[in-house]
# Entry
Amino acid sequence: MEDTASEPSASITVPPPLRGPGPDAHEDLPGVALANDIGRAVAALTLLGLGALQRYRTEHPRDTRLLLMSSFLIDYPFANRLYPGALDALRHVGQYGPTVILSDGDVVFQPRKVARSGLWEEVGGRVLIYIHKELMLDQVMECYPARHYVMVDDKLRILTAMKKAWGGRLTTVFPRQGHYALDPKEILGNPPADVSIKRIGELAQLDVKALLADKP
# Structure
């Protein structure tokens, strides 16, 4: 998604091979975990807007026009704010393992954003949203067990934290798109990711088999 504000971040995880028989099974392929961030971005639009409106309401309690803003925030067309190629990227990596949205955010508006953007439907409802996703990796593994994960995120500190926790079971991908990805402090304060790409849309051309060829 286009970067319009700050926190929270959205992510994508492509988890495990599906278990059991059936046309959707990926029994011979490692799981892939993609994270954020296909698209991040207006992730913070609603929360920032809500905070600003709450402050305005405190200062102007008689202004009834504020009630009209609720529909704007809840029904905002987040699909128009996805980064170009985001859905194509999901469909491409989804050939190698079930994709999962792994996101930071609140429990009310963040699910709404994911749904309104079209990402919820694209990943078949496989969505995990936490306050700090990097602290919930044990549950991520419980929900989507896999031999190997790939995490895509525009925050190097998130990739670093997850790499520290999962080690060789994780391949990190860093899209250099959005202001988080271009933050000098983020770049200088963390080691580079395993793979770096210019924009999220490049995932649609990523050779996933080659990327995971030497993984268990």
